[in-house]
Amino acid sequence: MDKKISSSDKVFSASHVAPSPALSLNKLNAGYKERQVLFNINAVFYKNKITSILGPSGCGKSTLISVCNRTLELIPGAGVISGNVFLNGNDIYDTAASAQLIRKKIGIIFQHPITFPASIVENVLFGAVYHQKLTRQERLDYARHHLGIVGLETELINRLHEPAHKLSGGQRQRLCLARTLANQPEIILMDEPCSALDPSAMRHIEELIKTLSKTYTIIIVTHNIAQARRISDYTIVMTNGRIIEQDQTTKIFEKPKRKQTHEFIEGLIG
Ligand SMILES: Nc1ncnc2c1ncn2[C@@H]1O[C@H](COP(=O)(O)OP(=O)(O)OP(=O)(O)O)[C@@H](O)[C@H]1O
Ligand SMILES: [Mg+2]
Protein backbone atom coordinates (compact mmCIF):
# COMPACT_ATOMS: atom_id res chain seq x y z
CA MET A 1 0.00 0.00 0.00
CA ASP A 2 2.93 2.34 -0.45
CA LYS A 3 2.75 3.10 -4.15
CA LYS A 4 2.45 6.76 -4.96
CA ILE A 5 0.36 8.52 -7.53
CA SER A 6 2.01 8.46 -10.93
CA SER A 7 2.73 11.63 -12.85
CA SER A 8 -0.30 11.18 -15.10
CA ASP A 9 -1.39 14.72 -14.06
CA LYS A 10 0.43 15.69 -17.26
CA VAL A 11 -2.73 14.85 -19.15
CA PHE A 12 -3.92 18.38 -18.33
CA SER A 13 -2.67 21.63 -19.87
CA ALA A 14 0.75 22.78 -18.70
CA SER A 15 -0.57 26.21 -17.63
CA HIS A 16 -3.18 24.68 -15.32
CA VAL A 17 -2.32 24.42 -11.64
CA ALA A 18 -4.23 21.29 -10.70
CA PRO A 19 -5.66 20.73 -7.22
CA SER A 20 -4.63 17.58 -5.35
CA PRO A 21 -5.62 14.26 -6.88
CA ALA A 22 -8.14 12.14 -4.98
CA LEU A 23 -8.17 9.18 -7.34
CA SER A 24 -5.94 8.34 -10.26
CA LEU A 25 -5.95 5.53 -12.80
CA ASN A 26 -2.69 4.36 -14.25
CA LYS A 27 -2.40 2.29 -17.46
CA LEU A 28 -5.60 0.49 -16.58
CA ASN A 29 -6.98 -2.36 -18.70
CA ALA A 30 -10.22 -4.05 -17.67
CA GLY A 31 -13.17 -5.98 -19.02
CA TYR A 32 -15.66 -8.80 -18.80
CA LYS A 33 -15.20 -12.53 -19.23
CA GLU A 34 -15.75 -12.35 -22.99
CA ARG A 35 -13.95 -9.13 -23.85
CA GLN A 36 -11.67 -6.30 -22.77
CA VAL A 37 -13.56 -2.99 -22.75
CA LEU A 38 -11.10 -0.50 -21.18
CA PHE A 39 -7.72 0.11 -22.77
CA ASN A 40 -4.74 1.89 -21.20
CA ILE A 41 -6.78 4.33 -19.13
CA ASN A 42 -4.81 7.14 -17.48
CA ALA A 43 -7.03 9.55 -15.58
CA VAL A 44 -6.94 11.86 -12.58
CA PHE A 45 -9.90 12.92 -10.46
CA TYR A 46 -9.28 15.92 -8.22
CA LYS A 47 -10.34 16.49 -4.62
CA ASN A 48 -13.56 18.44 -4.17
CA LYS A 49 -14.02 18.78 -7.91
CA ILE A 50 -16.70 17.46 -10.23
CA THR A 51 -15.45 15.43 -13.19
CA SER A 52 -17.87 14.39 -15.93
CA ILE A 53 -17.31 11.33 -18.11
CA LEU A 54 -18.83 11.62 -21.57
CA GLY A 55 -18.91 9.25 -24.51
CA PRO A 56 -21.15 7.25 -26.84
CA SER A 57 -23.31 4.43 -25.49
CA GLY A 58 -21.27 1.27 -24.94
CA CYS A 59 -17.88 3.05 -24.89
CA GLY A 60 -17.14 1.87 -21.33
CA LYS A 61 -18.21 4.73 -19.02
CA SER A 62 -20.08 2.54 -16.52
CA THR A 63 -17.25 0.00 -16.58
CA LEU A 64 -14.75 2.79 -15.93
CA ILE A 65 -16.50 4.05 -12.81
CA SER A 66 -17.05 0.53 -11.51
CA VAL A 67 -13.30 -0.12 -11.55
CA CYS A 68 -12.91 3.02 -9.42
CA ASN A 69 -14.45 1.37 -6.35
CA ARG A 70 -13.98 -2.32 -7.08
CA THR A 71 -17.60 -3.04 -7.97
CA LEU A 72 -16.70 -4.40 -11.42
CA GLU A 73 -15.18 -7.50 -9.84
CA LEU A 74 -18.57 -8.36 -8.30
CA ILE A 75 -19.65 -9.48 -11.80
CA PRO A 76 -18.42 -13.05 -12.35
CA GLY A 77 -15.48 -13.10 -14.76
CA ALA A 78 -15.15 -9.30 -14.82
CA GLY A 79 -12.30 -7.25 -13.43
CA VAL A 80 -9.05 -5.39 -13.90
CA ILE A 81 -6.55 -7.03 -16.25
CA SER A 82 -3.61 -4.74 -15.46
CA GLY A 83 -2.83 -1.26 -14.17
CA ASN A 84 -3.50 0.61 -10.93
CA VAL A 85 -6.13 2.75 -9.25
CA PHE A 86 -4.70 4.99 -6.53
CA LEU A 87 -6.84 6.44 -3.74
CA ASN A 88 -4.89 9.07 -1.81
CA GLY A 89 -1.72 7.43 -3.06
CA ASN A 90 -2.60 3.81 -2.20
CA ASP A 91 -3.48 1.20 -4.83
CA ILE A 92 -7.04 0.02 -4.17
CA TYR A 93 -6.18 -3.24 -5.99
CA ASP A 94 -3.29 -3.97 -3.66
CA THR A 95 -3.74 -7.43 -2.09
CA ALA A 96 -3.72 -5.81 1.37
CA ALA A 97 -6.60 -3.44 0.50
CA SER A 98 -10.11 -4.21 1.74
CA ALA A 99 -12.63 -4.06 -1.11
CA GLN A 100 -15.43 -3.50 1.40
CA LEU A 101 -13.72 -0.47 2.93
CA ILE A 102 -12.96 0.92 -0.53
CA ARG A 103 -16.64 0.65 -1.50
CA LYS A 104 -17.51 2.58 1.67
CA LYS A 105 -14.95 5.30 0.89
CA ILE A 106 -15.95 5.47 -2.76
CA GLY A 107 -19.73 5.26 -3.00
CA ILE A 108 -21.50 4.50 -6.27
CA ILE A 109 -24.97 5.31 -7.51
CA PHE A 110 -25.72 2.95 -10.36
CA GLN A 111 -27.36 3.79 -13.68
CA HIS A 112 -30.41 1.77 -12.59
CA PRO A 113 -30.91 2.62 -8.90
CA ILE A 114 -31.07 -0.43 -6.68
CA THR A 115 -33.33 -0.31 -3.63
CA PHE A 116 -33.53 -3.13 -1.13
CA PRO A 117 -36.83 -4.85 -0.21
CA ALA A 118 -37.12 -2.79 2.97
CA SER A 119 -38.53 0.55 4.13
CA ILE A 120 -37.30 3.93 2.92
CA VAL A 121 -35.54 4.56 6.25
CA GLU A 122 -33.93 1.11 6.26
CA ASN A 123 -32.71 1.72 2.73
CA VAL A 124 -30.95 4.92 3.79
CA LEU A 125 -29.41 3.17 6.78
CA PHE A 126 -28.24 0.12 4.83
CA GLY A 127 -24.46 0.15 5.21
CA ALA A 128 -24.44 3.10 7.60
CA VAL A 129 -25.80 0.89 10.38
CA TYR A 130 -23.09 -1.59 9.59
CA HIS A 131 -20.41 1.04 10.13
CA GLN A 132 -21.87 2.93 13.05
CA LYS A 133 -23.43 2.11 16.38
CA LEU A 134 -26.62 4.17 16.54
CA THR A 135 -29.63 4.05 18.86
CA ARG A 136 -33.10 3.65 17.32
CA GLN A 137 -33.88 7.37 17.52
CA GLU A 138 -30.43 8.28 16.22
CA ARG A 139 -30.96 5.93 13.29
CA LEU A 140 -34.21 7.65 12.37
CA ASP A 141 -32.69 11.13 12.77
CA TYR A 142 -29.66 10.06 10.73
CA ALA A 143 -31.86 8.72 7.94
CA ARG A 144 -34.06 11.84 7.94
CA HIS A 145 -31.01 14.10 7.83
CA HIS A 146 -29.73 12.36 4.70
CA LEU A 147 -33.17 12.26 3.09
CA GLY A 148 -33.27 16.01 3.77
CA ILE A 149 -29.98 16.57 1.92
CA VAL A 150 -31.41 15.01 -1.24
CA GLY A 151 -34.72 16.87 -0.87
CA LEU A 152 -36.82 13.82 0.00
CA GLU A 153 -37.55 14.35 3.70
CA THR A 154 -40.46 16.77 3.30
CA GLU A 155 -41.75 14.91 0.25
CA LEU A 156 -41.84 11.58 2.08
CA ILE A 157 -42.42 12.70 5.66
CA ASN A 158 -45.49 10.45 6.08
CA ARG A 159 -44.05 7.54 4.12
CA LEU A 160 -40.70 6.93 5.80
CA HIS A 161 -41.62 3.39 6.83
CA GLU A 162 -43.21 2.39 3.51
CA PRO A 163 -41.39 -0.05 1.23
CA ALA A 164 -38.84 1.71 -0.97
CA HIS A 165 -40.06 -0.07 -4.10
CA LYS A 166 -43.17 2.14 -4.06
CA LEU A 167 -41.09 5.19 -4.95
CA SER A 168 -40.83 6.64 -8.44
CA GLY A 169 -37.64 6.17 -10.47
CA GLY A 170 -36.41 9.69 -9.67
CA GLN A 171 -37.21 9.30 -5.98
CA ARG A 172 -35.36 5.98 -5.92
CA GLN A 173 -32.34 7.63 -7.52
CA ARG A 174 -32.33 10.29 -4.79
CA LEU A 175 -32.85 7.61 -2.12
CA CYS A 176 -29.75 5.81 -3.40
CA LEU A 177 -27.82 9.09 -3.17
CA ALA A 178 -29.02 9.51 0.43
CA ARG A 179 -27.86 5.96 1.21
CA THR A 180 -24.45 6.65 -0.31
CA LEU A 181 -24.08 9.90 1.69
CA ALA A 182 -25.11 8.10 4.89
CA ASN A 183 -22.05 5.90 4.41
CA GLN A 184 -19.83 8.99 4.68
CA PRO A 185 -17.76 8.43 1.54
CA GLU A 186 -14.82 10.51 0.31
CA ILE A 187 -15.68 10.09 -3.35
CA ILE A 188 -19.08 9.71 -5.01
CA LEU A 189 -19.44 7.98 -8.37
CA MET A 190 -22.70 8.71 -10.16
CA ASP A 191 -23.84 6.87 -13.26
CA GLU A 192 -26.38 9.06 -15.08
CA PRO A 193 -28.03 10.28 -11.86
CA CYS A 194 -30.53 12.44 -13.72
CA SER A 195 -31.73 9.90 -16.30
CA ALA A 196 -35.07 9.37 -14.51
CA LEU A 197 -35.65 13.02 -13.59
CA ASP A 198 -37.79 15.79 -15.05
CA PRO A 199 -36.01 19.09 -15.87
CA SER A 200 -36.89 20.71 -12.54
CA ALA A 201 -35.76 17.70 -10.48
CA MET A 202 -32.63 17.54 -12.64
CA ARG A 203 -31.76 21.15 -11.80
CA HIS A 204 -32.31 20.37 -8.13
CA ILE A 205 -29.87 17.44 -8.32
CA GLU A 206 -27.35 19.54 -10.26
CA GLU A 207 -27.41 22.18 -7.52
CA LEU A 208 -27.08 19.44 -4.95
CA ILE A 209 -24.08 17.92 -6.76
CA LYS A 210 -22.39 21.34 -6.82
CA THR A 211 -23.00 21.76 -3.08
CA LEU A 212 -21.79 18.22 -2.37
CA SER A 213 -18.55 18.89 -4.23
CA LYS A 214 -17.50 21.22 -1.40
CA THR A 215 -17.29 18.11 0.78
CA TYR A 216 -16.81 15.24 -1.66
CA THR A 217 -14.97 14.44 -4.87
CA ILE A 218 -17.60 13.73 -7.53
CA ILE A 219 -17.33 11.68 -10.70
CA ILE A 220 -20.43 11.71 -12.86
CA VAL A 221 -21.25 9.79 -16.01
CA THR A 222 -23.74 11.67 -18.13
CA HIS A 223 -25.22 11.60 -21.62
CA ASN A 224 -26.27 15.20 -21.13
CA ILE A 225 -23.48 17.27 -22.67
CA ALA A 226 -25.05 20.56 -21.53
CA GLN A 227 -25.19 19.22 -18.00
CA ALA A 228 -21.50 18.30 -18.05
CA ARG A 229 -20.72 21.82 -19.19
CA ARG A 230 -22.95 23.34 -16.49
CA ILE A 231 -21.73 21.46 -13.48
CA SER A 232 -18.30 19.92 -13.97
CA ASP A 233 -14.85 21.36 -13.35
CA TYR A 234 -13.17 18.67 -15.46
CA THR A 235 -14.40 16.54 -18.34
CA ILE A 236 -13.22 13.23 -19.75
CA VAL A 237 -14.33 12.16 -23.23
CA MET A 238 -14.19 8.47 -24.15
CA THR A 239 -14.76 6.39 -27.26
CA ASN A 240 -14.31 2.63 -27.75
CA GLY A 241 -12.89 1.99 -24.29
CA ARG A 242 -10.23 4.69 -24.50
CA ILE A 243 -9.97 8.22 -23.18
CA ILE A 244 -9.60 10.58 -26.12
CA GLU A 245 -9.29 13.79 -24.12
CA GLN A 246 -9.44 15.04 -20.53
CA ASP A 247 -9.05 18.58 -19.34
CA GLN A 248 -10.77 21.44 -17.60
CA THR A 249 -14.38 21.53 -18.79
CA THR A 250 -14.02 25.01 -20.29
CA LYS A 251 -11.09 23.80 -22.42
CA ILE A 252 -12.88 20.65 -23.58
CA PHE A 253 -15.87 22.71 -24.72
CA GLU A 254 -14.17 25.84 -26.00
CA LYS A 255 -10.84 24.59 -27.27
CA PRO A 256 -10.72 20.79 -27.60
CA LYS A 257 -7.36 19.47 -28.75
CA ARG A 258 -8.73 16.42 -30.53
CA LYS A 259 -10.99 16.45 -33.58
CA GLN A 260 -12.93 13.50 -32.13
CA THR A 261 -13.74 15.51 -28.98
CA HIS A 262 -15.05 18.36 -31.08
CA GLU A 263 -17.13 15.95 -33.17
CA PHE A 264 -18.58 14.26 -30.11
CA ILE A 265 -19.52 17.55 -28.46
CA GLU A 266 -21.12 18.77 -31.69
CA GLY A 267 -23.20 15.56 -31.80
CA LEU A 268 -21.46 14.19 -34.89
CA ILE A 269 -20.49 10.92 -33.18
CA GLY A 270 -22.27 8.88 -30.56
N1 LIG B 1 -21.97 -7.59 -17.55
C1 LIG B 1 -21.40 -7.49 -18.75
N2 LIG B 1 -20.91 -8.58 -19.39
C2 LIG B 1 -20.32 -8.50 -20.60
N3 LIG B 1 -20.16 -7.34 -21.28
C3 LIG B 1 -20.62 -6.21 -20.68
C4 LIG B 1 -21.26 -6.23 -19.40
N4 LIG B 1 -21.59 -4.94 -19.10
C5 LIG B 1 -21.19 -4.19 -20.13
N5 LIG B 1 -20.59 -4.93 -21.08
C6 LIG B 1 -20.04 -4.47 -22.36
O1 LIG B 1 -18.96 -3.58 -22.09
C7 LIG B 1 -18.97 -2.51 -23.01
C8 LIG B 1 -18.99 -1.19 -22.22
O2 LIG B 1 -20.22 -1.15 -21.49
P1 LIG B 1 -20.55 0.03 -20.48
O3 LIG B 1 -21.80 -0.37 -19.78
O4 LIG B 1 -19.37 0.32 -19.67
O5 LIG B 1 -20.83 1.23 -21.51
P2 LIG B 1 -21.41 2.70 -21.25
O6 LIG B 1 -20.48 3.67 -21.89
O7 LIG B 1 -21.71 2.88 -19.81
O8 LIG B 1 -22.77 2.67 -22.10
P3 LIG B 1 -24.17 3.45 -21.83
O9 LIG B 1 -23.91 4.89 -22.15
O10 LIG B 1 -25.11 2.79 -22.80
O11 LIG B 1 -24.57 3.21 -20.40
C9 LIG B 1 -20.18 -2.70 -23.92
O12 LIG B 1 -19.74 -3.29 -25.09
C10 LIG B 1 -21.05 -3.65 -23.14
O13 LIG B 1 -21.82 -4.47 -23.98
MG1 LIG C 1 -23.47 3.09 -18.74
Summarize this entry quickly.
The chain has 270 residues and is of the alpha/beta class.
- How are the strands of the largest sheet arranged? 6-7-8-3-9-10
CATH superfamily of the domain at 8-112 and 185-265: P-loop containing nucleotide triphosphate hydrolases
Report the span from N to C terminus.
39 Å
Top CATH class of the domain at 8-112 and 185-265? Alpha Beta
Helix/strand-derived category reads alpha/beta
CATH topology of the domain at 8-112 and 185-265: Rossmann fold
- Small molecules (ligands, ions, cofactors) in the structure: adenosine-5'-triphosphate, magnesium ion
- What does the largest sheet look like? 6 strands, mixed
Sequence of secondary-structure elements? EEEHEEHEHHHHEHEHEEHH
Give the amount of beta strand, in percent.
15-25%
What's the number of helices? 10
Low-confidence regions: 1-9
Rg, nearest Å: 18 Å
Helix content: 25-40%
Anisotropy-based shape: globular
Mean pLDDT: 90
CATH architecture of the domain at 8-112 and 185-265: 3-Layer(aba) Sandwich
Number of strands: 10
Overview of the molecule:
- With 270 residues, the protein is of the alpha/beta class.
- It has a domain at 8-112 and 185-265: 3-Layer(aba) Sandwich (Rossmann fold), CATH 3.40.50.
- 32% of the residues lie in helices and 24% in strands.
- The protein has helices spanning 61-68, 99-105, 120-125, 128-131, 136-149, 169-182, 199-212, 225-231, 249-254, 259-265, and strands at residues 21-31, 36-46, 50-54, 79-87, 90-91, 106-109, 187-191, 217-221, 234-239, 242-248.
- It has a six-stranded mixed sheet, with helices on both faces.
- Helix 5 (136-149) packs across helix 6 (169-182).
- The protein is globular, with a radius of gyration of 18 Å.
- The N and C termini lie far apart (39 Å).
- The structure holds adenosine-5'-triphosphate and magnesium ion.
- Residues 61-62, 111, 191 line the site of magnesium ion.
